[in-house]
Amino acid sequence: MLSAKSLYQEILDNDESFRLFCSIAASGESQGGWENARIAALVPRSERDLAPKITRHGADEDKHGRIFNALMKKRHLEPVPVPPETDYTMLLEKHGIGLAHEKLKSDEPLTVRDIVTYLAHSRVTEQRASEQMELLRKHFADHPDLGRAVKMISNDEDNHLAYCHEELLRFAYAGHGRAIQETLRECALAEIRVYRDVSLAVMAHMGRILGWPRAKSAVLAAGIHGVYAYERAAGWRRMVSLRMPERRDALGGPATSAPEFA
């Protein structure tokens, strides 16, 4: 019987599929770290108080990338190149979601609207990250190799999501409500398409590595399309709602380290 736990277990038990899984994750986290570092450096003067929180967000993402690389190293595995069709972060940028890398590579300060766009994009993608890590935490929190990493990353992703809610509400109260809702909706609808396409690509690669029969691959693909159909109809709305989080000022302190994974 196919289940999320059995599927992940199969991927984690095989060195080649585990290496691809960790390489994709590490690449995306490292890219997020770079993006946040550049945004922190370019924050407009009126929003300089946000810079330390954005910096911490980026430091957390860098830490996650190091953790995934360390998990590979522990099994004496080297990272592999990330197939372009599985590169979630770059595909989002290609679809015009978030701040363009050309803008981040320049020295021109960002505008307040740019910061709103960044936060809206992060609110959507951190929703996905928080849900995915919660799933891994549910099934592998007690895993001897993955447990500590999963719990640490899951807690960080929850902090990131709380931070996005709180800061977006602050901007909404300051008069940016309409722009926030429009950007959130645009980001959410684009994200669910990219997530579907990346999920199909990742499962295709895993299927080839693990030698899945055609019927199993077809069932998994149908499941991915089913999730997309639900998200396209109504599920995307969970990505655009805003509420004051229980975790207030979630990124207000220094980034936590992970020396055991360094």
Account of the 3D structure:
The protein has 262 residues and is mostly helical. Helix content is 71%, strand content 0%. It is built from eight helices and no strands. The protein has helices at residues 4-13, 15-42, 51-74, 88-94, 101-105, 112-140, 147-210, 214-233. The N and C termini lie far apart (37 Å). The relative contact order is 0.14. The model has no long low-confidence stretch (mean pLDDT 94).
Reconstruct the topology from this structure.
Layout: H1 4-13, H2 15-42, H3 51-74, H4 88-94, H5 101-105, H6 112-140, H7 147-210, H8 214-233
List key phrases describing it:
single chain, 262 residues, mainly alpha, 0% strand, globular
Quick take:
The protein is an all-alpha fold and 262 residues long. 71% of the residues lie in helices and 0% in strands.
User: What fraction, in percent, of the residue positions are helical?
Assistant: over 70%
Spatial shape = globular
> Strand content of the residues, in percent?
under 5%
What is the makeup of the main sheet? none
Number of DSSP helical runs: 8
Radius of gyration, Cα only, in angstroms? 18 Å
